[in-house]
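Consider the record:
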Amino acid sequence: MTMAINPLGELTAALHEAQDAEVANILKLNSNLIDNHCSPPWLHLAIAAPRNQLILLNLLLDAGAPIEATDKFGATALHVATGTQQSDCLGELLKRGASIDARDRNRKTAIHYAAHNNSPECLDLLLTNGCSRDVADNEGKTSLHIAAREGALAAVNALLLNGASPMLQDHEQRTPLHLTRVPGVAKALVNAGADVTAPDAHGHTPLSNAVDRRPAMVPNLLTSGMAVHGNINDTKLQVFLNLDILTPLGSAALGEMSLLRTMAHRGQYDLLKHPICETFLHLKWLRVYPLFIVKIFIFFGLTISLTANVCLHADFPKKCDTNMTAPELNQSSVVCNGKLWSKCLLIFFLTIITMRQILQLLLRFSSLKSRGSWLELILTICTMIVCSSVVDREQPGGWHHHLSAITVLLSWLQITVLMGHIPQIGIYVHLFKKVSAITVLLS
């Protein structure tokens, strides 16, 4: 029994095995064979062959294989040649008139594939033949978005050199700089004019993303805020710093210190030593210094008056009594005056602090996220209770005595915390905290 010969099967098998002579013979004997539909298309099979891809491709094209045939993903032979980084096949397809901006089902063109695979040769062929550099896919991403996301530095440089825009946004308003994880790619994009403060649809900027997840990129992004005019060896060298990159438009709700605070919370102290950050912090300190000194004075007054009031009630619990000897009456009078003045001063400073905290909560409730704000709030509440328990404190013992002692301790702790914010003293307070923590752990 003789088996029927299937030319389609033979041609498919010959392409899979890269038998160019067999392919040429089959096409010669079956001139109309190429008109039959194949999945994947004939040209795709030729490009996917293990060898002799260009020879097979030319044989099929000469036989009339459709150059724009697509597979189930909507990809043409141009997409496949670019995706497999076969620049010789890509060049031949372009010479034969393949549509350079053909899109697949995800609206990607060949340049998206070249950017994804970091193929400078394919990119050069596509750009030289006039492909659209900034065409977007169904997610709004250009080839530069794809290259940046994949960390394809060679592709990024090639695209930027040929005029690709680093400022185009995808459907989530992300620029290529939002997507990259590679410091070298970030540096190339910044040098090309990418904006490190551009917010996406969620309000995140490339700089804030880098601080959160990719700290190695942060120095390159911060450097975009620096400009040098003049010779570096010249005494008239001018250095310009753009501090707005730390407080981009739209970040007012988070506070202008939010980015630097994130660096501190994540232990990225080396980043805080960057000239941009140090300059910003220095100018910020000069601006708030007078108000900060007033704040320290108010809390210091509260602490002194609270300490005096608690100590006087603890050491001299008896009330002033007229049935006393002259020396006792004189001493008691001094003590009573001390109690009265200390309480008046305590109420005065407590009123100021309470009004400040109420105003702060009304303007920015998120301030409660700070541990310092919680310390102030607890201290204020405890001080109010102490002030209202004067009658109880005239009696020895009781919970009010313990609360008074705790409140005094909290007030002095608050003074220590505030003094730690002063740059000249902060290093010693920080050292004290570290040593104390170690001592507690070892004890």
Remarks:
- The chain has two domains: 7-214, 283-442.
- The first helix runs from residue 7 to 16.
